[in-house]
Design brief:
Blueprint (H helix, E strand, L loop, with lengths): L3 H14 L2 E8 L10 E7 L14 E8 L10 E7 L7 E5 L5 E3 L12 E7 L13 E8 L1
Antiparallel strand pairs: 1-8, 2-7, 3-6, 3-8, 4-5, 4-7
């Protein structure tokens, strides 16, 4: 029993440190440079954003966002894309520019320290260089 007691204390203390947390990133998207082109903002966590010990074992619970608009653009569209490995889109959803939202759709795709979210904007027409109205935020709601 004396050998098991320290192990039990260690397991109980490790379990009590697990929990939910969220991290918000803010980025300003690039410009839309003419019809047929896209603007985007990329949101990724830094190692310093994770609680101690959570970088390699966090699970996604929800993603929430506030996307900007491109006021000079005509028929603007936006997509929010989750990228598990930070390179290729794992899945995308259509979102409404300028309207906050949240989704749990990406929860089953897994999550790693390399995961990120891209918000992409495109427009049917507008000036050659259309500027965003402001920055965008993405909040990663995670548990470990």
């Amino acid at each position: 029993m004396k050998k098991i007691a320290p192990l039990l204390v260690l397991l109980v203390s490790a379990a009590s440190q697990a929990g939910d947390y969220s991290v918000t990133t803010t980025r300003t998207p690039t410009f839309i440079n003419g019809p047929g082109h896209s603007a985007f903002s990329r949101h990724q966590l830094r190692l310093a954003d994770y609680p101690r010990g959570a970088a390699n074992n966090s699970r996604l619970q929800k993603i929430s966002w506030t996307a900007t608009t491109f006021p000079e653009s005509v028929n603007e569209r936006a997509n929010l894309c989750f990228r598990r490995g930070g390179v290729h889109d794992s899945d995308c959803i259509s979102i409404t520019p300028g309207v906050p939202g949240s989704t749990e759709r990406f929860n089953s795709l897994g999550f790693s320290y390399a995961s990120d979210v891209m918000i992409r904007h495109s427009a049917e027409s507008g000036p050659w260089q259309s500027k965003p109205a402001g920055p965008e935020t993405v909040t990663f709601h995670l548990t470990y």
